[in-house]
Amino acid sequence: MHPLTRQLNPQFNTHGELIHLLSIEDLSRDILHAILDRAEPFTAVAEREVKKVPLLRGKSVFNLFFENSTRTRTTFEIAAKRLSADVINLNINTSSAAKGESLLDTVDNLAAMQADMFVVRHASSGAPYLIAQHLAAIGSKHIHVVNAGDGRHSHPTQGLLDMYTIRHYKRDFTQLTVAVVGDVLHSRVARSQLHALAILGVPEIRLVGPKTLLPSYAAQMIENAPLRICHDIGEGLRGADVVMTLRLQNERMNGALLPSTQEYFKSYGLTPEKLALAKPDAIVMHPGPMNRGVEIDSTVADGRQAVILPQVTFGIAVRMAVMSMLAGTSGGSAQ
Amino acid sequence: MPMNLPPVTDLIAQLAKQMRPHITPATVLVGIHTGGVWAAEVLHAALGLTTPLASIDVSYHRDDHHLGNGLKSGGRASHLPDNVEGAHLVLVDDVLYTGRTIRAALNEIFDYGRPAKVEYAVLIDRGGRELPVAATYCAHAVVVPASQSLDLQRSDAGQLSFSLSEK
Predict the structure, then answer these.
(1) Residue pLDDT, tens place only, A308-325
(2) Domain A156-312, CATH number (from 3.50.20.10, 2.30.40.10, 3.40.190.10, 3.40.50.1370)
């Protein structure tokens, strides 16, 4: 990495070590594989008599969820607890933010409570970056920030757990055809997935959805990624190794981008008939929560090709890997 | 071969000789990654044990994560017997130095259950203890200065040898 880039990128310290996880886009293939490698033995921790390892013993992890999420918050909480950290969940809707406290005032207060790590979800893109930069500015570089989803920008741990799932079932990224079906352009999950797939060397990534959700400029949404837009789902799924479905967000209906959920299901909902066009051993993924009968048919969601529940289990190991990796590095220049 | 250390095969034969009167059909050898696993494989064959060889990775219990040098390589899963409860385990390592690895290994084992007895077999005790740890079986003792590191290596052909280098 160019020294200047490193300096400007708050994810890395001056040694080039990852100190925050804010986004996948400027991570190298080596770092992605290092995170996935580290996650592997963590999957076995849950099978021990004592389901804990002491890597974050004595550390305080604050879950700062400015936007609701049950699954992501819970899996981060489990991951932190399996690493022996103390976890504090801040319910922001009923806390000071609701009384008008600014984001950075909240951060200052938590830093004064000797926090070691913030797991941040926020409706505004860039909020975790703002927090990381602010922590550096106030001399609290030792506090690590993990982005748990910001606006339409990024959801890096979801992208990583999806890559873990693909690697678990398919081993080699460089031979795969991956189809991402749904509202790709507005999805932070898709954005993180696409960055990760491109970095890991997937040679063909198809974006599948209607013209209203996938205008032609969507093919340029990720620099240097082998993206191909398919408005026809048959063309999108034919011969695919991995089918990643996305949740159809209700806002898209209100925005009049789609006629109705029934109409969407008819054209783009993943049914056994449509899935039959993909390779026989293709896996079906979904980041949850699923809308059965909208983007995915129940037969597929519960079928033998679905790996949706393993995704959740792998998510804990991947979050453990990320948190233990960040906590093992120092925020300062040298120590 | 530095400092005229005996060949590794001799060290392992020596360990096997010391251990033989004390092992039972239920004794399980547990190699500590990475050098200890290599040594344990040879020792396991020499002792003719029928229990499967176990292995342990102590990364999660190391005490130097905050120094920024823990878990660099990510760690591996430990492979311990299904029933650690009440087992007779012998930890096997290549070099005994500060004793911190053994402290971590004991913590790792107890995450799986409560063994009846844990012993410790090591090829070389190089001195320099920082914790109150002693080997149950030790093939060779030698003093190595703190400025040097002593490591077991394995060639592509599977030959084990010690290498001494400046840190």
Answers:
(1) 999 999 999 999 999 999
(2) 3.40.50.1370
